[in-house]
Amino acid sequence: MFEPSTLKDIAKALGLSTSTVSRALRDTHEISSRTKQLVMDYAKKINYRPNPNALSLKERRSKSIGVLVSEVANHYFSQAINGIESIAYDKGYHVIITQTHESYDREKINTEYLSSRSVDGLLISLSAETDDVAHLKYLHDKGLPMVFFDRVAEEIDTHQIVANNEKGAFEATSHLIETGYRKIAHLTSSAHLSISKERLSGYSRALAQHNIPINEDYIKHCPHGGMFHEEVETAIQELLDMKDKPDAIFVAGDRLSIGCLMVFKKLNIKVPEDMAIAGFSNSDVLDLMSPSLTSIRQPAFEIGQIATEMLINLIESRYPVTEFEKKVLDTSLFIRNT
C-alpha cells in the first residue's frame, strides 16, 4: 500500500525535530536559511507533499472547490473550466468538477456530494431544469461560500459573473435583420433560466428597434437546452410546419446551435439559402462546418477566472462579506457566411 512521506520522515532523515521541519517548510523567520535549504532540498528529493487532511484539520479548510456545470463537453463550459483551474491551482486549491446533464435531480445529488466532501466553496451554473434553488440556498445560509456564473440564481445574495447576454442577442438578431431577414424565429433553452430571459430580451429589442412585430409562435423553448436531440428536432419541425414559416433563426446556445445544424442536414435544409442562422457558440468547430455559423462568442475563460477569484476571496475573507457584485463581460459577434 502506498504511504506518502511525512514530516516525521524528513525530521528523522535529517536529525531535526518535526516542528523545525514544519517551520522550515513554511519559510518562517526563526529558522536559519541553511536549515531551510537543507529541508527544502530533501523534501524535493523525496517528492514530499503536505497532507491535505492534516492541513484542513489545522486550517479548517479542504483547499478544494466544487464546480457544478451542465456538461464538460459543452465548449463554453470546457473553456470556463480551464479558466477556473488556471486560478484555483495557482492558489493551491483542488477543483472537483461535476456535471448535471441539465437535470435538477442530478444537480441536487452533486451539491450534496460536494458539500459532504467539505469543499471550501462552490462555483455554480444552474441546470436547465432548475427553477427551485432551495438546496443551494440552504447551504449558502449555513455559510458555504458560492459564486454563480453564466446561469445565475437571483434569489441567493452572492457574487455573479455573466456575459452580456442581452447585448449579444441584440447584435446577432440585428445582424440577421440587416442581412435582409424579417421573419426571425428564436430557439432557446428553458424559459426560467437567466440566460434565456436575457437573450430573449435582446432578440425582442432588436425586432422592436427595426419595427418588426414579435410572433410568439416563432419562439421555441427546449426544456433541456438541446441535451436531447429530439427536443431540437421537434422545435425546428414545428417552425417548418407553420403556414408563415420563418426565414431565419436566432439560436441561444452552443448545444442548440450544433443541434439545429444537424437537424437542417437531416432534413436537407440548405443554410443560408433555405434558412439563415445565427447563434451563441464558443465552438471553434463551427469554422470547419459548411456552412460555418455566425455566432456570439462569450469570454468563457475569463468568466471562469473571475468567478474563481471571487470565490477564493469569499473563502479567505476574515470577516463576513455582505456586499456582492454582479460582473457583466462583453460578448463578440463573429460574422461568417450564414
From TrEMBL:
GO terms for molecular function: DNA-binding transcription factor activity; transcription cis-regulatory region binding. It comes from the Bacteria. The keyword Transmembrane helix does not apply. InterPro entries: HTH_LacI, LacI/GalR-like_sensor, Lambda_DNA-bd_dom_sf, Peripla_BP_I. Keywords: DNA-binding, Transcription, Transcription regulation. PROSITE patterns: HTH_LACI_2 (PS50932). Residues 5-59 form the HTH lacI-type domain. PANTHER family: HTH-TYPE TRANSCRIPTIONAL REGULATOR GALS, LACI-RELATED TRANSCRIPTIONAL REPRESSOR. This is LacI family transcriptional regulator. The lineage of its organism: Bacteria, Pseudomonadati, Bacteroidota, Sphingobacteriia, Sphingobacteriales.
